[in-house]
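Morning F.,

Quick status update on the modeling queue. The single chain you submitted on Monday has been processed. Sequence for confirmation:
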Amino acid sequence: MSDGESVEAAKTLAGRAVPFVVYSGLGVEESHEAFSFGVTVMKPAESAEVVRVIREMIAGQQPRMTG
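Structure tokens below.
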């Protein structure tokens, strides 16, 4: 997604209280505020890390973040 599309998607998900994951090379401080409602996984990350975060979210847990 381009930046504009992803910002709008994040706003929509946040407005509907739908959990989401942001996979980005930018830190939370550098990202649009809409992304602060999601869980950010920093690039680069192993696919297993992304899957772990999603599984923890599905289980209703607060994902533990690494590096």
